[in-house]
Write a structure and sequence with these properties.
Layout (H helix, E strand, L loop, with lengths): L2 H12 L3 H20 L4 E3 L3 E8 L2 E4 L6 E4 L2 E8 L1 H7 L1
Antiparallel strand pairs: 1-2, 2-5, 3-4
Length: 90
C-alpha cells in the first residue's frame, strides 16, 4: 500500500474531499517524524510502537576495493508490532 492508496481509502470510506484526506495523512506522518526526531517513542495502541535506535560508529569494508572505512554513528527508526497486529497476522 502506498501513501496515495491510503489517501484513496480514506476518501472512499469517510466520504471526504481528497485534499482533506491528503492533509490528514501528511499530518500523521509529519507528527510521527517530528516525535522520532526528538527521540520520543510513538505508540499506536493496538498497532505497534515506533522507536529510535542508536547505531554506534563502526568500521566497515568497501566491497569494491576491500579498503576499511569508518561508518559514522547514526539513528534509525524501528517498528515493533503490537499484540493485536501480531494476532491479526497469525
Amino acid at each position: 500500500m502506498t501513501k496515495t492508496d491510503m489517501i484513496d481509502v480514506i476518501v472512499q470510506k469517510l466520504d471526504l474531499p481528497r485534499t482533506v484526506a491528503e492533509r490528514a495523512v501528511n499530518l500523521i506522518f509529519d507528527e510521527i517524524t517530528s516525535r522520532l526526531q526528538q527521540a520520543d517513542k510513538v505508540n499506536v495502541s493496538g498497532f505497534g510502537t515506533f522507536v529510535v535506535a542508536e547505531r554506534k560508529a563502526r568500521q566497515g569494508r568497501n566491497p569494491k576495493t576491500g579498503n576499511t572505512i569508518e561508518i559514522p554513528a547514526s539513528r534509525a527508526a524501528k517498528f515493533r508490532p503490537g499484540k493485536t497486529l501480531k494476532e491479526a497476522l497469525n
